[in-house]
Amino acid sequence: MTTLTKTEDAPNPTGSDAFLSVRDLRVQFSTEDGIVKAVDGLSFDVERGKTLGIVGESGSGKSVTNLTILGLHSTQTTSIDGEIVLDGKELITAGEKEMEKIRGNKAAMIFQDPLTALSPYYTVGRQIAEPYMKHTGASKKEARQRAIEMLAKVGIPQPQTRVDDYPHQFSGGMRQRAMIAMALVCDPDLLIADEPTTALDVTVQAQILDLLKDLQQEFGSAIIFITHDLGVISDMADDLLVMYSGRAVERGTVREVLRNPQHPYTWGLLSSMPRLGGDTAQALTPIPGSPPSLLNPPSGCPFHPRCTFTGEVTGNRCAEERPTLGVGRASACHLTAEQKQTIFIDKIQPRLR
């Protein structure tokens, strides 16, 4: 059964007037092997008209967080604690009928793989029109016209004809555009994009990113953009949240985090990326080890078994004490501010040039 727990008021982690506020979110799944702690005490805000980027390796809790916001987890196997407030409405305690009014209307999601997210049995136009009819009470004729308008808006050629095509008749980039049209058909205030460009080639990826930015400017939506690609996020987001093992380990504006990262995990992500114009003979620096098991996460800092800078901290503090993420620009690390800056300048920055 889903556990519904409203936490006490927590400090605003970003200091902003949030349209979406997530406070101390904890999501656990019951499995045959035990309890999976998929999200473990996560807090963040998203402002209206702004984009929050969430980055991290697979299994860091990015997608689980955003499925939880939309209430898309099974109530039989999921335990949810914390607080999610969207435009003043608490979502964790909302019933299914209330969430049906929110999903696709107040908040919508663009899924990673449109071929599996779109039904093969219905035309693209019908799938775009259906939520519009449900939430606005529009007739089939009105909804069909709205679907054509949205297909045109997202750059589908000959929308009057393509509205009657099935998903398999669209290319990968066109299917993703159709998914975006379906997500935006009711002018949602919050748009969640879950790695929407992962399966696309770089040219189509750039087109989709430009499309999202243009549509955000037109509709004024808040966007949560989930990805593992820091190159993409640098072009899309205003603010950035770095997640690891179900927790936030660093937060700040995109400029702050990418230009002056303060957490060893963020250093690892940046060091492992190839760079345009970089020395092709220089080897990339991978993060050692593997992400921790969410069934049995390590004590203390979840990143300490893979961190090459644990020795900079005296004693066993990294292994025994969980670091906290402060308010505003912050990183959850036991290194002092002076140690972080010295390590970044001496050891990390030269790799990023």
Task: Note down, in words, how this protein is organized.
The chain is α/β, with parallel strands linked by helices and 353 residues long. Helix content is 35%, strand content 21%. The chain has a domain at 4-244: Rossmann fold, CATH 3.40.50.300. The chain has helices spanning 62-69, 96-102, 114-117, 124-136, 140-153, 159-162, 172-184, 202-219, 230-236, 254-259, 264-271, 317-320, 337-352; strands spanning 4-5, 20-31, 34-46, 51-55, 78-86, 89-90, 107-110, 190-194, 222-227, 239-244, 247-253, 330-331. Strand 10 and strand 11 form a beta hairpin. The model is unreliable at 1-11 (pLDDT under 50). It is a peripheral membrane protein. This is ABC transporter ATP-binding protein. Belongs to the ABC transporter superfamily. Keywords: ATP-binding, Cell membrane, Membrane, Nucleotide-binding, Transport.
Structure at a glance:
The protein is an alpha/beta fold. The chain contains 13 helices and 12 strands.
Q: Major sheet: size, sense and barrel closure?
A: 7 strands, mixed
End-to-end Cα distance, whole Å, is 50 Å
Helical coverage, percent range: 25-40%
- Summed over residues and divided by their number, the pLDDT gives a mean of 88
The CATH architecture term of the domain at 4-244 is 3-Layer(aba) Sandwich
- Rg estimate, integer Å: 21 Å
The CATH topology name of the domain at 4-244 reads Rossmann fold
Report the CATH superfamily of the domain at 4-244: P-loop containing nucleotide triphosphate hydrolases
Order of helices and strands: EEEEHEEHEHHHHHEHEHEEHHHEH
Secondary structure: number of strands: 12
Report the sheet-strand fraction: 15-25%
Sequence stretches where pLDDT stays below 50 over 5 or more residues: 1-11
Structural class: alpha/beta
The global form is: globular
In DSSP terms (H or I, runs of 4 or more residues), the helix count works out at 13
CATH class of the domain at 4-244: Alpha Beta
Strands ordered across the widest β-sheet:
7-8-9-4-10-11-12
Domain ABC transporter: 22-270
Protein name: ABC transporter ATP-binding protein
Membrane topology: Peripheral membrane protein
GO molecular function, one term: ATP binding
